[in-house]
TrEMBL record:
<dbReference type="Pfam" id="PF16974">
    <property type="entry name" value="NAR2"/>
</dbReference>
<dbReference type="GO" id="GO:0010167">
    <property type="term" value="P:response to nitrate"/>
</dbReference>
<keyword id="KW-0732">Signal</keyword>
<keyword id="KW-0812">Transmembrane</keyword>
<keyword id="KW-0534">Nitrate assimilation</keyword>
<comment type="function">
    <text>Involved in nitrate transport.</text>
</comment>
<dbReference type="InterPro" id="IPR016605">
    <property type="entry name" value="Transptr_NO3_Nar2"/>
</dbReference>
<dbReference type="GO" id="GO:0042128">
    <property type="term" value="P:nitrate assimilation"/>
</dbReference>
<feature type="transmembrane region" description="Helical">
    <location>
        <begin position="174"/>
        <end position="195"/>
    </location>
</feature>
<keyword id="KW-0472">Membrane</keyword>
<dbReference type="GO" id="GO:0015112">
    <property type="term" value="F:nitrate transmembrane transporter activity"/>
</dbReference>
<protein>
    <recommendedName>
        <fullName>High-affinity nitrate transporter</fullName>
    </recommendedName>
</protein>
<keyword id="KW-1003">Cell membrane</keyword>
<feature type="signal peptide">
    <location>
        <begin position="1"/>
        <end position="22"/>
    </location>
</feature>
<comment type="similarity">
    <text>Belongs to the NAR2 family.</text>
</comment>
<dbReference type="GO" id="GO:0005886">
    <property type="term" value="C:plasma membrane"/>
</dbReference>
<keyword id="KW-1133">Transmembrane helix</keyword>
């Protein structure tokens, strides 16, 4: 019993000491994917309302077979460096599994290297996306689910084709009011229920 506890504790501990995350480095990835998105440079989109059309595929100028190891694609919404000034945690981390600049998953799909048609998707900006400047990046994964390549809508220095997303203003206020209304409603209906039960009990006596 104690032995098992110790084993569990050391397993948990080793997760902190050793990297439990993969070892993929962004700097080791090849930029072979071509990714485009509908927002124009500087366009402001509203979270929870506006849509983005994303298109991705292998850069067609590369030799055939470049993508022979690609098995899946993940498309993500990423913070652009403008917000690094006040939010250091948005800085790109070379260890891919620790990187928090691309937090919002748009889609994950299997990759078919035989299909040369660029894939595309229309995505409504999720309501919880905070106000900031963004771009879109796609990662290609191999059979071991390790990142092997990428592509993005901006240049290597993340300075071109950036767009804005504006969070829904007053969203929290609305949600708070809703939850107050809801709890008031629950209390009232609870009292109503007990009152009713009491009356029924009286009536049956
Ligand atoms: C596609 O590949 C060519 C040749 O490597 C490169 O010059 C070009 O910039 C690439 N296009 C994109 C969008 O990455
Ligand atoms: C290739 O991809 C396109 C776009 O997603 C799709 O419409 C088409 O059916 C695919 N073709 C094959 C042979 O899988």
């Amino acid at each position: 019993m104690a032995g098992r506890g110790l084993l569990l504790a050391s397993l948990v501990l080793s997760c902190f000491l050793l990297p439990c995350y993969g070892t993929g480095l962004f700097s080791s990835l090849q930029r072979t994917l071509e990714v485009t998105a509908s927002p124009t440079s500087g366009q402001a989109l509203r979270a929870g309302v506006d849509k983005i059309t994303v298109t991705w595929g292998l850069n067609q100028t590369l030799p055939a077979g470049t993508d022979s190891t690609y098995k899946a694609i993940k498309v993500k919404l990423c913070y652009a460096p403008i917000s690094q000034v006040d939010r250091a945690w948005r800085k790109t981390e070379d260890h891919l599994n620790k990187d928090r600049t691309c937090q919002f998953k748009i889609v994950a799909r299997p990759y078919n290297s035989a299909n040369k048609t660029a894939q595309s998707l229309e995505w409504t900006v999720e309501p919880d996306v905070p106000t900031a400047t963004y771009f879109i990046r796609a990662y290609a994964f191999n059979a071991e689910e390790k990142e092997v390549a990428y592509g993005q809508t901006t240049d290597a220095h993340k300075t071109t084709n950036l767009f804005q997303i504006e969070a829904i203003s007053g969203r929290h206020t609305t949600m708070d009011i809703c939850s107050i209304c809801f709890s008031a409603f629950s209390v009232v209906s609870l009292f109503g229920f007990f009152y009713n039960e009491k009356r029924k009990a009286k009536g049956s006596r």
